[in-house]
Amino acid sequence: MNRTDLAPLPDYNIRISPRAKNVSIRISHRRAIEVVVPKHFDLSDVPALVETRRSWIARTLDRLEQEERAIVPAPTEWLPKEIALRAVPETWTVSYQPTSAPQLMATVTGQQHLQLTGATGDRAACQNVLHQWLHHSARYHLTSWLRRVSQDVDLPYSRATIRRQKTRWASCSSRKSISLNAKLLFLPPELVHYVFVHELCHTIHLDHSKQFWALVGEKDPHYRTHERHLKKGWGYIPAWVDEAPPEG
After folding, report:
1. Separation between Cα atoms, residue 156 and residue 134, nearest integer Å
2. Burial zone of 4 (CB within 10 Å; 0-12 exposed, 13-18 middle, 19+ buried)
3. Closest CA to 82 of 98, 96, 103
4. For residues 99 and 108, is the Cβ–Cβ distance under 8 A?
5. Would you list the domain boundaries of the chain?
6. What is the distance between the alpha carbons of residues 234 and 236, in angstroms, rounded to a whole number?
């Protein structure tokens, strides 16, 4: 028996899904563990099930940590001084100018330079302003890009919205409405293009059936490579985008 076997089970959340037919364990890019169970599953059986996947959970958590370290170096300061939007591609510099102004504002003061003025010592307020800027940038870049891809692959959709989802890059509804994650801007462009193709194919097949993947393969012959790389894509997301500001 190794040291991992003796360790307590990791913390996890349980989500009951009416659509689930089997139990599944999911680990997000931020290393949060979720156990998805069918509606009438006996929840007392969950700990034993998690125990059977202990080794896989440990390996996955370790892999995610290594990938994050490899892609995103640890910043010397939590708030960014540079923001790399790989998808576009653009690299923005960010400066912080403390003033006595009651409101914190973000202003484009030069070519790809963003200046925050006001109570810049309030990291939560700075994060909120940067979120707004990111949302605006995503709406500007991603919606028109999706429109072009839709025309290229001949798969129309009804509307596009921008959100900041925690576990999905995008989604498509039964009404062909596509929701795009603003964090797509941090990915390499070929992965963003693949996400667009993937969701546009959902306008025809809402599931992940053989017919769906056949359509994806028709529109993107390299989709398997893109799908594999996309699983590591969360490592491109800077800490300030998702995490709460550190204290102090």
Report:
1. 26
2. exposed
3. 96
4. no
5. 3-71, 82-242
6. 5
Residue 35 pairs with which residues in a beta bridge?
A: 14, 25
What is the amino acid identity at position 115?
Q
For residue 92, CA distances in Å to 89, 95, 112, 206 come to: 10, 10, 5, 37
> What is the rounded CA–CA span in Å between residue 33 and residue 145?
33
- CATH architecture of residue range(s) 82-242: 2-Layer Sandwich (3.30)
Q: Within a 10 A sphere around the Cβ of 217, how many other Cβ atoms?
A: 13
Phi, psi of 32 (to 5 degrees): -90, 130
- List per-residue pLDDT tens for the chain, 248 residues long: 444 455 677 788 899 888 888 899 988 876 788 899 998 899 889 888 888 988 898 888 888 777 766 555 444 468 999 999 999 999 999 999 999 888 899 999 878 999 999 999 899 999 999 999 999 999 999 999 999 999 999 999 999 999 998 889 999 999 999 999 999 999 999 999 999 999 999 999 999 999 999 999 999 999 999 999 998 899 899 989 988 887 65
